[in-house]
Design brief:
With about 575 residues, this protein is of the alpha/beta class. It has 25 helices and 17 strands. Helices cover about 45% and strands about 15% of the residues. It binds 2'-deoxyguanosine-5'-triphosphate and calcium ion (2 copies). The site of 2'-deoxyguanosine-5'-triphosphate (DGT) has 14 residues, from α12, α14 and α15.
């Protein structure tokens, strides 16, 4: 079974449990925590860089984040017998088509169950009967029908591009393999990965060697290759078990700079660069920089040499998109982009503190998060759990629970050395734009993150109003994952971003650049636009587990692609300045 198949099975189990709870079929025995455990495990399996079946054979299932003892037992049974009795028992109460419907973005277990009543045979059948109005005539809601249709469109337009952090970990392994060959003088991961685009179509590598054929022969023997699509003297394309395509170009050391430049792209950047070269009597290609008249190749051992020949500074790979970087490089006015080493803290972290949160509690203790932050060399760390929900708790219960956590964090502040701790929450901006926690409790915090966690498919004006209202609250400091996208799952919602940027800048509110692998939100293009309004940003990981705190560099990549400098990012500031900004004494 592939990772995707296993993940889909676990999601189906989670959905079946949700329905059982909703329908009160043993509902009292199902906990939301259990449902979430299956969903979390599914996500981490989808994103593994090894095949889960291999891990099972090597008895390493326990190494997968989110796979605990009981799930390990079920997965054992799955790989041994091809099925899990416990899962079959849970799922057999439901029409199997329900689990197909759940693949549609925006369709949850309840809608899927409702749809199943209409005796639909397949997703194709569903699309047909929605389009010809049949379902609506039979009593199905017009509004929900429209939502499902757009979900079906989104599903068919899915690109199948890999999220940057996972592509990056594949690339590290491939580079290690390439560099194992003593004939390889240098090897680099290029293309969209080097430009740090949030999703990657295929992986591109370059290697420098005197004898390219030898390197190619070694490359096509790499473990994990399922198909060799193309093999030439100095290039090859292969497919890995995950379906990921990998290109390799091998070039001579004298012109390795030209190869690096060519294969990093982007295509638009290269086209402009080629025109500039032509005007100077030069031609560019992966083989080198050629004097058009003499046919002589000008050596370019490094990329810097190539750009220098063109009388340009070298733009950071992240901004090579022909969106102004070429003009800036010619004028020697490239921005100094923010770097990972500038980051002094992470302010969006979820712990497992018993706050009875509405959703998304973390896996580790607050102390674990603090220790990890110290390990990363941070000066400060902000803990920002989700609060309890109004639907399950009374106002005074919410306040009491938050007070209890505040007390606990205060005691940690006293006992902790070498790092500053900030007491925060990530609260919801609810449907009418008000906040999910009473002001009375918000007052006790060092800082407050507010985010939209529901109603992502509402009208543009409604979503804009919700964010604007939160930006006007004196208690809100940061808006988390502002555009609500989930890569490969849900697009950014539409909103009046200019208005949002204007109000954020005016009220000294900070927009988050969330580095969680499937968020990368605010998006790079919106970061660049927000910068024009002098909006400040914070780069966070939104980690729900300590290891995810290492994703900071991917958040930094989004900021760099948005041309952000360290002065635009509040968590590059030292503790004194941060404490002043949040009014902490
Ligand atoms: P991806 O794979 O879709 O995430 O995007 P890239 O940028 O990695 O694109 P890819 O893998 O097709 O090609 C890698 C680089 O090679 C690309 O960024 C620039 C260069 N390149 C590829 N095709 C062309 C082309 O037709 N013209 C020019 N000038 N450069 C190209
Ligand atoms: Ca590529
Ligand atoms: Ca490619």
């Amino acid at each position: 079974m592939t990772n995707l198949e296993v993940a889909k099975l676990l999601r189906s189990v989670a959905a079946a449990l949700t329905l059982k709870k909703a329908n009160l079929l043993d509902g009292n025995k199902v906990s939301l925590f259990q449902v979430r455990a299956y969903e979390n495990a599914a996500t981490s399996i989808e994103n593994l860089t090894s095949e889960i079946e291999d891990l099972w054979e090597e008895d390493k299932l326990g190494d997968i984040p989110g796979v605990g003892e009981s799930l390990k037992k079920y997965l054992n049974e799955l790989f041994k017998n091809g099925k899990v009795e416990h899962f079959e028992k849970i799922m057999k109460a439901f029409d199997p088509i329900i689990f197909e419907f759940l693949e549609i973005p925006g369709v949850g277990p309840k809608t899927a169950e409702e749809l199943a009543k209409y005796k639909i045979k397949s997703l194709g059948d569903l699309k047909k009967r929605l389009k010809n109005g049949e379902l609506v005539r039979e009593g199905f809601s017009v509004k929900v029908a429209e939502k499902i249709l757009s979900g079906l469109e989104e599903l068919s337009s899915r690109t199948g591009r890999m999220l940057l952090p996972y592509a990056s970990s594949y690339a590290d392994k491939i580079l290690e393999y390439l560099k194992n060959n003593p004939k390889v003088l240098a090897a680099d991961a290029l293309g969209s990965l080097r430009r740090q685009v949030s999703t990657v179509g295929d992986l591109d590598f370059a290697a420098s060697a005197k004898d390219p054929t030898d390197v190619i022969n070694h490359f096509v023997k790499m473990p994990g290759i399922t198909q060799i699509v193309d093999q030439g003297k100095s290039s090859a394309t292969v497919v890995l078990a995950s379906g990921l395509h990998v290109d390799l170009l091998v070039g001579k050391p004298e012109s390795y700079g030209a190869l690096l430049q060519h294969f990093t792209g982007s295509k638009n950047h290269n086209i402009r660069l080629r025109n500039i070269a032509n005007e100077q009597g030069l031609s560019l290609s992966e083989y080198g920089v050629k004097n058009t008249k003499s046919g002589h190749i000008i050596p370019t051992k490094t990329e810097e040499e190539l750009y220098k020949i063109l009388k340009m500074d070298t733009p950071a790979p992240e901004i090579r998109e022909d969106t102004g970087e070429i003009e800036a490089a010619l004028a020697h006015r490239l921005p100094k982009l923010v770097e990972f080493k500038d980051i002094k803290g992470d302010l969006h972290l979820h712990s497992n503190f018993q706050l009875e949160p509405s959703h998304g509690s973390g896996a580790n203790t607050i102390q674990d998060l603090i220790n990890k932050a110290k390990g990363l060399g941070y000066e400060y760390v902000g803990i920002s759990d989700h609060p309890p929900a109004f639907t399950t708790h009374t106002r005074s219960e919410i306040i009491k629970l938050i007070e209890k956590r505040t007390k606990f964090i205060h005691s940690l502040k006293k006992s902790t050395k070498n790092i500053q701790i900030l007491n925060g929450l990530e609260i919801d901006i609810v449907g009418d734009g008000s906040l999910s926690v009473p002001d009375e409790a918000l007052k006790t915090l060092d800082f407050c993150i507010a985010g939209i966690h529901s109603g992502h498919r509402s009208h543009k004006d409604i979503l804009t109003k919700r964010i604007i209202k939160a930006l006007m609250s004196p208690y809100v400091d940061i808006i988390s994952h502002p555009s609500g996208r989930l890569l490969n799952e849900r697009d950014s919602f539409e909103a009046d971003w200019e208005e949002i940027f204007r109000v954020a800048a005016k009220n000294n509110k900070v927009l988050e650049i969330n580095g969680y692998p499937n968020r990368m939100d605010l998006r790079d293009d919106l970061v660049r636009q927000a910068k024009e309004f002098e909006v400040k940003f914070v780069i966070d990981t939104d980690a729900h587990e300590v290891s995810q705190m290492e994703n900071m560099k991917f958040g930094v990549a989004v900021a760099r692609r948005g041309w952000a400098q360290s002065s635009d990012i509040i968590n590059t500031w030292d503790w004194k300045k941060i404490a002043q900004w949040f009014n902490i004494n």
